[in-house]
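Appendix C reproduces, verbatim, an entry submitted by the partner laboratory led by Prof. M.T., so that reviewers can inspect both the input and the predicted structure.
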Amino acid sequence: MRTASALSLVLSASLVTPNYLAAAGSHCEMLGKYPKVSPSLSVHARGDDSYSETTEDDSFRKVTSLQVRVQGDRPQWNVNTQRFVSSFYDSVGDNVRAPLDTVNMASVEGALKYVQAECINASVVTNCTRKNGVKYVVFYQTTVVQPPASMAYYVNASDEYNFAIEHCPFVPLDGGRCNPNAKGAFPKECNQYIGAAGETKLGFCVGGTLQDNEAIAPYPHNYWFSFPNSCPQQLWDKKTDACRKKYPGGLCPLGVEPDGVTCTFSYEILGYILLDDVVGITSMVNPKTKRKFADYYEFCKAGGVEFSVAIADTNVTLLQGLDFWRSPGDSNANAERSEKVVAAYVDLLETTTSAASVTEGMRPLPTVDELTAINPPCYQNSKICAEAKFGCKRIYRSQICRVCSSSDVGCVVAQRY
């Protein structure tokens, strides 16, 4: 995922159950008293090269949310660990680490932005294969505890296009490392993960930035996230055990909860759905065989065109393609497309004709309200929200904190004393 042109979208809490939600909700109520606004968080609000020491009261409360990665490999259900893992590795350590080993992801609300902007236009399709071989829409549930130093440094989250509240700036990650510039230098934020190139070491902070204004794919409420893991400046095949040991962090080992110091995030794959099913290809009949298309490759070989657009300034015209992709430059149409992804996954789980082998291990997606109920109020993790007149509210499945401009439903104000 890139900030100018889309980059590959390369979420660990168990799926919440009613009992768990009830317990979590009562926990939130028991918090009762609101913490004072910490003086240490008001220092260097612009993000200078130094920051005050944080205290135990400044610790980041864990946040659980839902993200999406559109990828070429199908998650594999592991009976022993009872979780989805990568199909690229055999060992438990490697196959659990691989899915979130220094990668970018997107909010569910913008699940198809990367696909639409970069992977399916007829001009980038090669040998009837979508760019980067994207094939599966995978739902990740993540639990994040940001490093205290990073939140003190990036306390002034006043512009979501730079970085959202509770997040550091988004960093493009490709091939298992931060994307270097033409001269091979890594971005400042990447160096801050490990204290390289003279930068202050802030730890492995999850980045989050609003990305909703690309002409070919304007998806409302779309955020891109960066999840850096150990040895973040080396490609996957160059990440030695020594490097990972020297620069540990990011993804928590299996069974370890994030604390913002030892590790920052954990994840669990809730399930996935074929992109071909979402866009309707597998429901179409191949005129040559009189049977439904097996996949995109067969559809393309039969002369089918999924998506072909022309762009002039900010005007996007669909020249040819599936009805699913109609009006690609319309934000409302794109928002509806994102909801169709969720609806298709729900239908997959609820359809009695779905083979057990297809849906094995898959679980329902938590709703926005369910996620909000188990997460802390925004003011506990953000100075901006703690000082906001009308407080903040958690929004979307990505659980972004938004400053309220009025006493709206869901807005929580920190008690001042």
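The chain has a mean pLDDT of 87. Additional entries are available on request from the coordinating office.
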